[in-house]
Structure formats: C-alpha cells, structure tokens
C-alpha cells in the first residue's frame, strides 16, 4: 500500500498499458516493486517473465507470486534463456535494473512496446560510464524503428494526485487474497548499515524493513 506498490501500479498500468496476451518482463522480480508489477500483469491476463538473482528467488516468483517463469540473471546463458521464453517478443519491460538485463531485453522488444522506467539498480554505485561499446545509437534506433514508448517517472511527483485510485484498487485485491508480498525484517538500529549494504548487494529477499522497537 506504500510507495513500492504505488510505483508498480501506476508505472505498469499508466505507462506500460498491458493488454491480455501481452508478454511482460520485469527485473528484480521478487523485490517490492517487481513482485507487485508481475502480479498486476497476471491480473490483466499477461504472460509474465520475471528476472531475479538466484534459484530461491526465482522459485518464489513462480510458486508464490504466480509468474509464468522466472530467470536467474546470474546464469551464463541468461540472454539465450530470455530469448527462448519470450518466443513472441516482449510487449512491456518494466525497467528498474538496467545493465545486462536491458541488453538482453532490447533485441526482443516488439513494435509498439512500452518501457516504464522507475530505476537503474545496476548503475546506482557507478562513478563513470560503463565499459564496452556505445549502446546509445542501438537504443535510439530501436526506439525509432519499433516505435517504442520509454518513459521515466517519479511516483509522487507525477502520480500523487492518483493515490486514492491506487489505494482503493490495491485494497480490494489484498482483501480478495489476489496479492502476495514478502518482507525482509531486520531487527534493531545497530543492524541498519549491514542491512543497507545487503540491499545494494541483492541479499535482501522482499521489501527490506528495519524494526526499531518491539511490537506489543
């Protein structure tokens, strides 16, 4: 019901505009945003392909969150696996990671695909441009030739006035048992730094929450 869920809801539905039968790909699939994106996409009749780090997270995405498939981005043949499971291309890619995940997604994008952009996890610690070939011309050519919509957004700046709409719908889905969520609970202020470092290293599983006091 907070910022991550709101981000997933508006980014997917307003920018991504999923239609029944579309293939939706979302990275960081077991994080609070990605997990919600995938579940909303399934409620809209889409094929949902998640990307996560590790077998446990991928299994959770399929068995608990209801994704059709989830791929481990750490696999050496990740790009090939993505090509195989997205045999009809990709209609919506919810971008929150960047890096090699986007490199694998880009050639699979269908004409008219939509890409909501809410983050670039892989680049948050970067102090310079990534090494390797300049991908900008390939990206711009793809956007042009395939008429792709790629739009960034800041959730409360752009959609704060629509929070009530989100809260009403999400509240209904939760009451109906249609949305699953997972929290990674860490106890105590003393563990805050380690928890934050673990978040950046991908060690958290679900929404990271720091509990500062005992609950009665």
TrEMBL record:
Residues 32-164 form the Alcohol dehydrogenase-like C-terminal domain. It comes from the Bacteria. Pfam families: ADH_zinc_N. CDD domains: PGDH. InterPro entries: ADH-like_C (IPR013149), MDR_fam (IPR045010), NAD(P)-bd_dom_sf (IPR036291). This is Oxidoreductase YncB. It comes from Vibrio variabilis.
